[in-house]
Amino acid sequence: MVHTLIKHGVAALLFGFSGVAQAITVFACEPEWAALTRVLLPEAQVKTATHHLQDPHHIEARPSLIAHMRNADVAVCTGAELESGWLPMLLEKSGNRRIQNGQKGLFFAADHVQLIDPFQGSKTPFSGDVHAQGNPHFHTDPRRFLLVTQALAERLGLLFPQHQSEIKSRQQQFEQQLKSKITQWEIKAKPLQGRKVITQHATFAYLWAWLGLQPIADLEPKPGIPPTPQHLEKVLTIAKSNPQSPIIIAQHHDPQPARWLSQQLGPLHPLLVLPATVPSDQADSILTWFDNIINQLLTTQR
Fold first, then answer.
1. Is the separation of the CB atoms in 127 and 119 below 8 Å?
2. CB 31 within 8 A of CB 139
3. What pLDDT digit, counting tens, does each position of 130-174 carry?
4. CA angle 291, 46, 114 (to 5 degrees)
5. Torsional sign, CA 192, 142, 224, 252
6. Quick check: 204 and 274 in contact, CB under 8 A?
7. Inter-residue contact 250 to 201 (CB < 8 Å)
8. What is the bridge-based pairing of β-strands 25-28 and 196-199?
9. What pLDDT is stored for residue 6 in this prediction?
10. How many CB atoms lie within 10 A of CB 100?
């Protein structure tokens, strides 16, 4: 009897106790979705493929990312071709059936919002970072963030029914906070309405549309194509005829072209460098990021 108990005890140590819950692992393509996952499912172990200083269009499919994806129970990504240069390779090499295309374990946030500016025409290698479905940087609009929150909470509840009630409760609490903040942000940002801005890429296009800012020029001749001297001269001409229009770029962009333009134009065209996504993938970073973005935009008011 004793011998049998010892034998079973050793087996339990070697192979794990039956009934012990395994940790839920989540692969998030971008930090905003990692942060949202942490809001809804803080029990999960979340691996984020990118950070705010990287261009999510262009990521190396590193072996470490393949390993994390191989072990993931769910993958949460933007979609709309934002990750088309690296996500398909990760999915293929991971061999993880749970998160392949068409499986419930692969969640694309873009499937649950309406996108703007779909690319028209035939895409070529010279078209730049264009997307047939539309601009994939919709996370900069908190109203669309609400829609993704609802959809992701529903998917996580379906995948992990043992946590469904907690996920629903956290969803409702976060949505209440976000809706309250949206009202505050819209009131606070009213002085920005109609403000003309010079931008780079369509990174903040949804933010401009939400707050009523008007992009008048883009430092990139085509999306994702680095600024050229000839194109910068054209932007300089446009900017001179629109005084007090700030130059706003993302932190992952090369700052040199924007700095040159700012030096040519002087103090009436301040340069603002903003994080294109949450600088941290922690749960509290989403609201803080929007707070900081709006506060920094307001500093350009003169």
1. yes
2. no
3. 678 899 999 999 999 999 999 999 999 999 999 999 999 999 999
4. 55
5. positive
6. yes
7. yes
8. unpaired
9. 41
10. 14
Distance CA 110, CA 101 (A): 14
CA distances 19 to 15, 22, 251, Å, are: 12, 9, 46
Size of the chain, expressed as the number of residues it contains: 302
Helix (H, G, I), strand (E, B), or coil: what is residue 74?
A: strand
Q: How far apart are CA 149 and CA 154, in angstroms?
A: 9
What is the pTM assigned to this prediction?
0.90
Neighbouring residues of 268: CB distance < 8 A, sequence distance ≥ 6: 243, 244, 302
C-alpha 119: how far from its chain's center? 20
Between CA 52 and CA 31 the distance in angstroms is: 7
Side chain identity at residue 33, one-letter code = W
Long-range Cβ pairs for the range 259-266 (8 Å, 24+): 260/232, 261/198, 261/219, 261/232, 261/235, 261/236, 264/236, 265/236, 265/239, 265/240
Question: Can you list the positions of beta strands (E) in the chain?
Answer: 25-28, 45-48, 74-77, 106-108, 196-199, 214-218, 247-250, 271-274
